[in-house]
Description:
- Helices cover about 20% and strands about 35% of the residues.
- By secondary structure, the chain is of the alpha+beta class.
- The protein folds into two domains: about 1-15 and about 95-158, Regulatory factor, effector binding domain (Multidrug-efflux Transporter 1 Regulator Bmrr, Chain A, Alpha-Beta Barrel); about 15-95, no CATH class.
- The radius of gyration is 16 Å and the shape is globular.
Amino acid sequence: MKPNLSPVPEIVTTKPMPILYLQKTGPFMKTAPAAWQDFGRFVKDPLPAAEYKLSLHHVDKIKTGDDAFTYQAVIALKSATAHPPAGLQQRTVESGKYARFILSGSYAQLPEAYPAIYALLEKHSLKMRNDFSIEKYLNDYATTEEGSLKTEILIPIE
């Protein structure tokens, strides 16, 4: 399936972003659902400082096997909280330069979207930097038809 992806990257610089997250290590297709399930156990009620959900993921080129893959289920915050919920970690994602893509439709396209994104980065002579990629979920999968879902994908670049 060819992903419904914006054909040209938009270059953006993000602002620092305080986050709450739960981290898992291992293949993304396995760790992502487990991370969100565990995350939901720690956050029962809506957080007043929460802005939106996203995920951060990274492949460490130094590590090998399943240990190379890091996935974080995340809620972005308006500001850091003095008392994060037990079981979650808090940090600030620093400002950075990213290639921005929009994926329209089902999350099932995500595995095919990344090879297409990497090809577009190469085509536009954009070099990735060693940092977490970000998926920002622009609408709520629980209340949005699958075909209308929108995901902002940010790839860290130099």
